[in-house]
Amino acid sequence: MTHSPRHGGDLVVETLGALGADTVFGIPGQHALALFDALGRSSLSFVSARVENNAAFAADGYARATGEVGVLFVSTGPGALTSLAGLQEAYSAGVPMVVVASQVPLRGLGGARRGMLHQLDDQQASARNVCKSTHLVRRGSHIPSVLQQAWVTALTAPQGPVWVEIPQDVLLAPANIPPVRDIPVAVPALLPRDELVETAADWLQAADRPVILAGGGARRSGASEPLMRLAEALRAPVVSTAGGKGVFPWGHPLSAQSWVEDGLTTELLDDADVLLVVGSALGEVTSNYFTLAPRGRIIQIDAHAAVLESNHPALGIHADAAGTLAVLAEQVRPRPSNGYAEGVVQKLLAGIQARLDTQPLAAERRLMEDLRDAVPPDTNTFWDMTIAAYWAWSCWDSRAGQFQSAQAAGGLGFGLPAALGAALGTEQRTLAVSGDGSAMYSIAELATAVQHRAPVTWLIVDDGGYGILREYMTATFDAPSATELSRPDYVALAESFGIPATKTTLQGVGAALRAALASEGPNVVVLNAVLAMFEPTTPAPPTASAPQRPVRRGIRTSARNFREGHGALPDGPQ
Known about the structure:
This protein is an alpha/beta fold.
């Protein structure tokens, strides 16, 4: 067999291998053929998705699970544009990725509409809103340096995706430099300024009621150990956001867990005389839909400068979370434990459970307990934007596994492809959880799961529509509209791909999931159930510094009303 001469595509693949890549996700395309010619002659593994945004989700999941850079190949025009929704999640969540996108030949650049297939006026412009930076390569010899820069940028805090465009003729042109072997990677540290850390330490040392809010940035930076030291030194309760799950032990006496959509947690954060926010923008969900109104000082640590003080005035520290917390833990003198903070946490968690006890949510609470019992402690789980995920944001103990959801950007279809990427990257079984609405976004990736024999279990909670939107519409307008869906028989559909599947009930889902997770290869579990969301607590009376918070109206009851009004859900297809 003869091999084609080395070309620009080889320079891309050689450089990525030298940088440490071992897996590439994507879909071939006409302008990207040289990339795939080189890839087929390399030691890199290629995971062929079926839709580009799912390929981006898969590279994202791979990066989250492995801690490595996710690599994505996409073709020009429609392929590139289709990947953007997946890249928005990676950008919002701070996931390191390098995207290599093909482009029309050089003569087609510059805005002139030459009628080339897939041609866009400015393809880079489309990517700029969902990537840290974008690059256009005009010479093959520039490829190694540009990819090296992209790789370092992707890994530099705040991490995120970087876009590299290479025109078709540059990819096809003969390589005029030796094979790429040595690409050094030096990721700069984002260190805090001394005077800011000293001030923060003074504030925390003097605080009577310090509270720590740990977000996704704290988890991504590997801040668990210094966070533990600082929290125990201060005797400070630690609230984790959905993105921060796992950075602080769920069962620790100082863990206030992650019920950030509960008014009792909001009040705990409001009442802190010093609130230390690490790796969070205090955004919509974390702030309990912008009802958070802290009455004390705020210290905010974040690697993304745009996050600092974006929602509340604070002592902003632009730095990596782990390094900054380590310095703070060294500067703060440990306090003796008098049990006060632990008592505050116990009272908070007991109050939340008491509030749930007043609502008809036994089925939902039992479901989340059954899922947690069925999933091995070290399993990575990936959740779509579905009612089960909204519950998991609050109540899921990630234990030794990772909890990942599409909460950063909120797009549908994340669960299965992200779990595929994670499973193939770690060679360990992962769990994806989707609703039937979000499942249809990624159903084509069942073919990918089969082709690559991915150890993924996919739980589809089939409630006949966009369940959370049904709840929101009912709460806002008293009736849902455009939320009900015809859908396939998911069991038969999975089996048509050659994937074992089973249908179960709320009573049997634990056993069905446990069996699926113990199996080989991909499999699907379908749960027909309508779930309801919990109601938030009634807020405390307003004060001058804490205005009355709005209360979501009827969220919990809407799905229950739908179920009672329509009876049991029929099996698909409908």
